[in-house]
Specification:
The chain contains three helices and two strands; from the N terminus they run ααββα. The longest helix has 30 residues. It has a domain of 29 residues. It has a two-stranded antiparallel ribbon. Helix content is 66%, strand content 7%. It is elongated and about 65 Å long. The protein is mainly α. The relative contact order is 0.05. Its main location: membrane. This is Sec-independent protein translocase protein TatA. It holds the Pfam family TatA_B_E. GO terms for molecular function: protein transmembrane transporter activity.
């Protein structure tokens, strides 16, 4: 009871192709590739964030407001008009 031979793997692949079809498998592999790329990009972003020091948040009437995430009044007015 050793490892599978090449013929066993060919039979397994044929059965999988018959069950799922070629289009579904290629779509699944594409999704896996997108996930890997997204993961690598996220890891690169995390390492970039660690290299730069964090800016302290400003305080406004006892509430913490991040400097870059605060919406401008004109941006919120445009959203309500639309």
């Amino acid at each position: 009871m050793g490892s599978f031979s090449l013929m066993h793997w060919v039979i397994v692949l044929l059965v999988v192709m018959l069950l799922f079809g070629g289009g579904r498998i290629s779509g699944l592999m594409g999704d896996v590739a997108k996930g890997i790329k997204s993961f690598k990009k996220g890891m690169a972003d995390d390492s970039d964030d660690d290299a730069t020091p964090a800016k302290p948040a400003t305080r406004l009437e006892g509430h913490r407001v991040p400097e870059q995430d605060a919406p401008t009044p004109s941006a919120t007015e445009e959203k309500t008009k639309a």
